[in-house]
Structures are given as structure tokens and as C-alpha cells.
Design goal:
Layout: E1 2-4, H1 10-20, H2 22-28, E2 30-34, H3 36-44, E3 51-55, H4 62-74, E4 78-82, H5 84-90, E5 99-104, E6 119-123, H6 129-142, E7 146-150, H7 159-165, E8 173-178, H8 180-186, E9 190-194, E10 211-215, H9 224-229, E11 232-234, H10 247-271
Helix pairs in contact: 1-5, 6-7, 6-10
Length: about 280
């Protein structure tokens, strides 16, 4: 096990740069996972980090010790021990977790040919990494297959996005630098955009059919080109006095309306009775 005590070590500089530079992450096709939860999510999908860095204090924590043991046993990951003050330099967290991993970013190439998917998400010009991470988390939880990001979205593999997504990256196929109008045109199903000004309400749609949701920039919403490409636009009813919702919250409401409808349809299919109907009571 390599033991690093100098903040000037080349590996330390590389890890710091990966935390701070989206361009370097893209060039190197590497990202950093900080903390046991993200690393465990990565491992649960059969992916192994290229490297694990652990602080001298962190190596004595039970969860971290188990992670080190699991990765060491398979001999697929380089283990590096660092002095606490060195680890503090590379961690992006205010209170360092004691362990981080360097992973290869999965291939994110967008499909070049028409495709069939039941449920996917298109994101146009999302700028806040917390919003992007939260949307990815909701998409993975709701069972979406793929997420497509426009070229001007914030970096999907930044430390803030990874923390907000809570491991969702490893349960989705995330495509970056996509031409969303082409993806929307290729999608073999309905493509639903969202806008507070849309006259058709979210709950008027049938989402049991193959559906691609498109969510736009936090302030400007969808571009004109995207509005012309979608099948329809939906609005979320807001009977209160607030004019708009946070982008991640709005996306979650839409995604889970599809989950709700799929769930209801499954119950109807199994019971043979449409939801909402009641059998006559004999009492």
C-alpha cells in the first residue's frame, strides 16, 4: 500500500485537479467519489474504482475498513494511504469523509440511430449541480432508462452533482453533449416538455405509454427549438400563490406521475377492475 505524506505528490495534484476542473475530468475520463455511500453504490453495480485513497484516521472506521478489505481481496483497485493533512487537501467536503475513489467515467456517447425506450429524461441547459444531481436521483428512483444532457448543462460528474445524486449515476445511462432535438425526434413515443404557461395540465396526460420528459433551464425554461420539437407541453397545477417550482422538484413531480400511472395500470390489469370503481356491497 502506497503511503503519501506530501501534498506535492503527483497523485495528490491529480486528484485535486479532478475535483476542481470539469475540463480535466472530460479529458481524462475520470471522476472522484468522496465518501462511503457513493463508493458503495459504485461497487453494488459491479464497477470497481481504479484507486482508493484513505486517510490515516479514516482507515480505522468500520465502513471504510470493510470497503478496503473488499477491494483489496479482488485486487482490482490500487489502495493509497494518506496523511490526514494530505487527504484534507484533496477532499471537496468541509468535513472530510476519510475515503475517496477515482473511477473511470462510463461511455457517454449519444445514440446516432433511432431507438426504442419506455422512459427517459432529456435535460436542457440545467446550470445548478444540485438541481442536476437531484433530477438524476429522482430519474433513477422512478425507473428511467437513460438521461440525455445538452452540451451546456453543468457537469454531470462534478463533486456537487455526484453528492446530490446520491449514487444515481450508477443506475442510469447518462449521455452528455447531446443534440436534444435529434434525440426527441428519434424517440418512439411521446415527448413532453414542461412550462408553467402550458394550458394542458400534467394530470391530463397518459404516461403509461412510452414517454420522454424534457426539462429546461432553471430560469429560461425550454429553448424555442425544443418547444417546437416536443409532442406536447404540460404544466403542474399550483393552486397556491407561488409562481414557479424549483426545477428538480418540478421534474420529480412529473417523473412520479408516470410512476403513479404505471402502478395504477398494473393494479387494474391484475385485478381486472379499473381503479376508482367499487363492487356493490351485499351489506
Amino acid at each position: 500500500m502506497l503511503h503519501i505524506t506530501s501534498r506535492e505528490h503527483p497523485l495528490v495534484k491529480q486528484l485535486v485537479r479532478l475535483q476542481k476542473s470539469a475540463r480535466f475530468r472530460k479529458q481524462s475520463k475520470l471522476a472522484v467519489l468522496d465518501g462511503t455511500h457513493l463508493i458503495q453504490s459504485c461497487l453494488s453495480t459491479g464497477n470497481f474504482p481504479q484507486m482508493l485513497a484513505v486517510s490515516e484516521t479514516g482507515q480505522h472506521h468500520v465502513e471504510i475498513a470493510e470497503l478496503l478489505e473488499n477491494c483489496s481481496a479482488l485486487d482490482k483497485t490500487q489502495i493509497i494511504r494518506m496523511a490526514d493533512r494530505v487527504f484534507q487537501k484533496i477532499s471537496s467536503m468541509q468535513s472530510p469523509s476519510g475515503i475517496l475513489a477515482c473511477i473511470a467515467i462510463p461511455d457517454t456517447v449519444c445514440p446516432a440511430a433511432p431507438f426504442y425506450q419506455n422512459f427517459c429524461v432529456l435535460l436542457e441547459s440545467i446550470q445548478d449541480p444540485g438541481n442536476l444531481g437531484a433530477i438524476l436521483r429522482s430519474a433513477a428512483s422512478a425507473g428511467a432508462d437513460h438521461v440525455y444532457l445538452s452540451a451546456d448543462c453543468t457537469d454531470a460528474w462534478s463533486p456537487k452533482t455526484l453528492r446530490a445524486a446520491m449514487g444515481a449515476h450508477f443506475f442510469l445511462k447518462i449521455h452528455t453533449d447531446c443534440n436534444l432535438t435529434e434525440i426527441a425526434a428519434q424517440f418512439q413515443g411521446q415527448v413532453i416538455g414542461t412550462s408553467p404557461a402550458a394550458t394542458k395540465r400534467l394530470y391530463q396526460f397518459d404516461f403509461t405509454a412510452p414517454t420522454a420528459f424534457v426539462f429546461g433551464n432553471e430560469g429560461a425554461g425550454l429553448s424555442g427549438a425544443m418547444r417546437q420539437t416536443v409532442t406536447d407541453m404540460a404544466s403542474i397545477p399550483m393552486p397556491g400563490r407561488i409562481e414557479s417550482l424549483n426545477a428538480a422538484i418540478a421534474a420529480s413531480i412529473c417523473l412520479y406521475e408516470k410512476v403513479r400511472q404505471d402502478y395504477v395500470r398494473a393494479i387494474e390489469k391484475n385485478s381486472g377492475n379499473p381503479i376508482g370503481t367499487k363492487k356493490q356491497s351485499s351489506v
